Every structure is written in C-alpha cells, then in structure tokens.
Amino acid sequence: MYVLDAKRIPFCKSFSQYTGVSNQTLMTHTLNTLVSSAKLQNERIGDVALGGVMMSPADWNLARECVLGTELSADTPAYNVQRACGTSVETAWQLSLKIRQGQISSAIAGGVDTNSDFQATFPKSFTKKMLQVQGAKTLGARIAAFSKIGLADLKPQFPGVVEPRTGLTMGQHTELMVKEWNVGRQEQDQLSYESHIKGARAYKEGFYDDLVTEFMGIQKDLILRGDTTLEKLASLKPAFDKSGKGTLTAGNSTALTDGASAILLGNMEFAKSKKLEPWAELVDFEVAAVNFVGGAGLLIAPAIAVSRMLQRANRSLQDFDYYEIHEAFAGQVLCTLKAWEDPEYCRVTLGRDKPMGSIDRDKMNVKGGSVAIGHPFAATGARIIGSLAKALRGNPNKYGLISVCTAGGMGITAIVKGV
Fold first, then answer.
1. What is the domain extent for residue 407?
2. How confident is the model at residue 207, as a pLDDT?
C-alpha cells in the first residue's frame, strides 16, 4: 500500500491568520489541492477518512461534507476518525488495511484542526432547564421554567486541552515527565533550535514547495523561525511550572496551531491507472497506551508502541534512515529517547533483555519537527507521513520510523519504506 501524493496548507499559530475559518474550509481546500495535483477530478475514490480533535457539533459528518465540497465524484464515501494527536496516522492505518485486503484500491487520509473557530456552549444546566421549558404544557408553566434560568446557566464554555482524569494540561504532565527522566532545559532548547533550523533549511532547499499549498495568501508555515538562537530560547520563562523548577517554555513546546493535511493512498494498479509514481510504502503500524493516572508519563506510550512494532518486524531501533518523532514538546521527545536507552525501563516495561539503544540524532526530524512547523492536532500525522514519504521517494532500500504521542496516554507508530 503506497503513498502516492501529499498536500497540506501552511500551519499558522491559532487566533491569528485563520481566525474564524472552519475545519471544513481548511480541510476542503487541502483536499481539492490534492485532487488537482493527482488529477482526480470527478473520480470516485474508494474511501476517505478524516478527523479532528477540536470539533464542533456542526462537524458531526465533517469528512463527508468536505468531500462533497471537492472536485471528487460525489459518489466518494467518507467518515470521521479521532485518536487525538494521532488521528491522521490512524486514518492512514485503517485505509491501508482496506487497500491491502483488496476491498478498495485508493483512499485519502487526513486531518484538520483549528482552535480559532470555537463554538462556545452553555453549561448542561442550561440545556436541562430549556428541556423543562420545552416540556411545559401551559404558558404559566413555561414562564415558571424560564424563571429558573440564572446567569450561571448562561456562562459560555470553551473547550480546553486538559486531561479530564487528572485536571492537568499536557504541558503540566510533560513537566512531570522531564523531572522523572532528568531532562534539562538546555537540551530541550537545543532540540527546539535544531527543529527550527532544519525546517528553515528544508524550505530554503525547496523541499516543501510541492507539499505545502498556498491558502489565504499564506505560502509557508508561520510558526517556523529560521532566525531563532539558543540565546533567544534561553530567555523565555517557563510556561507550565512557574515554581522556579519548570523547564518547558513557549519556545520548546508546540504552539496551539491551525492547519490541515492529507495524503493519497493506493495500490500499484491504481497508481499505474492514474500514471502516479509511488513515493513510499506503509509497512506497519502499532498503538499503545499507558496508565498515566497511575503514574506513567502521559506521553511515553510511543516508546512502548515502537518496541512492539519492531519486535514484530524483527528490526532494531537503529535499522532506520529517518526518524520522525512528533515534537509535542522537546522534553517529551527526549524522555522517549532516554526510555529506549534505559536498561531498567526496557527490561521492566518493554520486556527486553537489553536496552533498545540510541538513535542517530542527525537522522531525526530532518525537515523540521512539530515545535518549529506547528501542531494542528489531527493534521500532524498526515503531515509527517507525507514529508517522510517524499524524503524516502526513489530510495527503495531506505526506511523511516514514525512515533506520535497523543492525549489520553496513547502513542501510535509506523514503519515506512521508500519506493
């Protein structure tokens, strides 16, 4: 099962350029660009799986509505998927299984997220009281029911990125992780600096020219700072733990981001019929979860998922030419790397006789990572798969490893092979 094309819009900091632009608008534009690039106008695709994390009630059938807004045939089916920050890796996984099974020959996987088009809701108490108003049989009963609605019932509520079972944000959880794994501020800033430099270099070299499509006059990721320095990063104050012991800042953490991405998948027969050259093959996937409520690190699950996947594939951690490790936070990436190197963690948690070892950091996030490029939750997976597939294109003996952490203490991973 092959990646045949990939497109995304520029990623922008939330509450800026894309303010008021809906998930549907962001995703539909991205899909139409992919359709145009692959010359799929009026074609029926086997299936389309899309998803988002910050979804409004109006997005209940988002994927199908997006497809109906494109130049694809209206006969193309679509459905929603959600696995937090791993959503569009999950869409690729599900669709690749359908293609491998021979049920379909083509598909589009993707994801979208905006924090800049929130629909505020009222408290449940307001809904309950309005139902009482609707159920009232007389005018007097309706007036009496209305009179019970107070100001507290009318207070708008906005979604937040907080773990419901702990009440902690992802950043607060990561502060706990970096303390547990003894990850310092300086190494977090160093990784973030490298992420920006690599991303800026990739743009300068033209790597993103055919991956990132112009939208609303914007041509490149606006969070990316090729002129950042370690001194600038070191000057930033902690953002989550302000006790004097915090090390996570706005510079070494991903900013809230808006954006959308999509990838075209298909078997070789479909590729030949459309005169498309495959970029890379999706070889394997894995998912894992940890008991973060019981004390495990919220974002450490990819360390487990990678271990299981590599055992099944009979591969070592060092058998890869590229490593795409999602940078929700620089500290989270470093915790994962340390977990693979730690004898006790590998023995007790991963069930291995010896540590998995270290990776060549020069092979990691070579075109920039999420800290620099941005992280529209559900769009990140397709962004990573598309970029990695392009890097592997024309290199049939090279492999890439994907590792994505997600909310809820989960992690999803993949192996991608060049074609």
1. 170-206+282-418
2. 98
